[in-house]
Amino acid sequence: MASMSEFGNNLYSGKTSFPFVGRRRLWFIIAIVLVAGAALVPVFRPIQFSIEFTGGSQFTVVAPESTDQALATDAVRSVAPEATTKVVIVGGADIRVQTDQMSAEETQQVAGALADAYTVEADSVTSSFIGPAWGENVTRQSLWGLAIFLALTFLILAIYFRTWKMSAAAIIGLLDVLVITVGVYALAGFEISPAAVIGFLTILAYSLYDTTVVFDKIRENTTEDGENSSRTFGESVNLAVNQTLIRSINTSVVAALPVGAILFIGAFWLGAETLTDISLSIFVGIIVATYSTLFVAAPLYSLFREKEPLIAERDARILDARSRATIGA
Fold first, then answer.
1. How large is the C-alpha radius of gyration of the chain?
2. Under 8 Å between Cβ of 2 and 9
3. Percent of the chain with pLDDT over 70
4. Cα separations (Å) of 247 from 12, 174, 244, 251, 252?
5. How far apart (Å, rounded) are the C-alpha atoms in residues 208 and 56?
6. Higher-pLDDT residue of 284, 193
7. Which among 116, 159, 317 has a CA at the least distance from the CA of 233?
8. How far, in Å, CA of 281 to CA of 212, rounded?
9. Residue 2 and residue 118: Cα distance in Å, rounded?
């Protein structure tokens, strides 16, 4: 514990420092590779959207004696040979079958075929239908929610920090988190459902919180430095990130552990798909959000500001003074 406390003190005082700003070119290259890789995932493994987005028919066989998924596929094909069928086991005991949109007559026939295939009573097979218009409305509302969130985030941060450059860096960091999280989600083969969308918006809020804390420390350092500071602007930003590093790691660990537990319980124990959908997006998002704040948003803000005439002039004076001191020594 003492060594950890000393490590944290050294980070805060600047005795120990990770080059978040100094090696930003490397971090940006890594970020670009990760984003490009995440964006290419759907090319090789298309993103799967839940029935709430695509529309279609859904059947649930309650407590069948067998959970053989092939029985459900054959039952659906016996009625609608061309129908796309997705079969999953829910809670380890029930069978859920999702298909393309079907007519009322086809729905009744498929329900009967499933009851026969699994040797259950007819009332043990429930059916529901989600029309394409409802799915389109869910998609539209989700996209509107994301757009409004990003717009309000940009505006509020610009007002709070009194510079649009912090807002721009934060928004780019949020987009980085969103793209990578969705890429990992698609790579894992999970469907994007309304629960997953809620998870995505939740991790964007978490990323925003983490970024705001770090940026607040950056503003404090760069404001207090003044003209007589011995640090360049980039060094002050880097110090602020190091000073909040332990807090960022601790917060991420504390947040990720319970979400990871929910993910494990939902996916491997209860078979609760809603829990799995939302917990996976939040779990991945927490990790990516921490990385994005430290390695993308903060160094990017420094890059945006360093070219400003007053900052560039002050940095040049500091570097020149150091050079003179070195030569004099």
1. 26
2. no
3. 91
4. 11, 19, 5, 6, 8
5. 36
6. 284
7. 317
8. 21
9. 63
Give first-to-last CA distance, the chain, whole Å.
Answer: 39
Q: What is the dihedral of CA 117, 96, 81, 105, to 10 degrees?
A: 80
Residue 302 has pLDDT above 80, yes or no: yes
**Type of residue found at 254:** V
Scan for tokens 């040049």, then name that residue: 316
User: Tokens in use for 281?
Assistant: 């997006």
* CA proximity to 167, closest of 95, 215, 103: 215
Amino acid letter for position 66: S
- DSSP-assigned beta bridge partners for residue 57: 99, 129
Q: In what order do the strands lie in the sheet with 94-99?
A: 85-90, 94-99, 56-61, 125-130
- Helices assigned H by DSSP within 125-272: 132-161, 164-187, 194-225, 233-243, 245-264
| pLDDT for res 292 | 94
β 191-192/94-99 pair status: unpaired
Q: pLDDT digit string (tens) for 152-186?
A: 888 988 898 888 999 999 999 999 999 998 888 88
